Amino acid sequence: HCLSARAVCQREIDGDRGSGYSWKITLLRNYWKSKVKQEWLSGKYSNIPSRNSLPEKSMYPMDVDTWGEILEAELER
Fold first, then answer.
1. Taking the CB of the first residue and of the last residue of the chain, which one, N or C, has fewer CB atoms within 10 A?
2. Ramachandran region of residue 43, left (φ > 0), alpha (ψ -120 to 50) or beta?
């Protein structure tokens, strides 16, 4: 699980590990974020007509850099 989360959230996980969080806490802090981020990056939500059409688990608190990655991926599509 750690490796799959790190494949999507490398910056976030490396930051947590650098801050001294254990692997377990790092995984707990980033697992769901990595799932949501992967869905956004894969284009799962590219053609959603409105905010009300988004599935309940499509949002997660993410920083500006993460949203920048997602927006860049959308622009490239």
1. C
2. left
Rounded CA gap, 71 and 56, in Å? 20
Number of domains in the chain: 2
**Closest by alpha carbon to 60, among 41, 28, 34, 42?**
34
Report CA dihedral (8, 19, 17, 62) to the nearest 10 degrees: -20
pTM of structure: 0.77
Same domain for 42 and 10: no
How far apart are alpha carbons 70 and 59 in whole angstroms?
Answer: 12
**pLDDT tens string 14-56:** 999 999 999 999 999 999 889 989 998 999 888 888 888 888 7
Domain around 56: 33-76
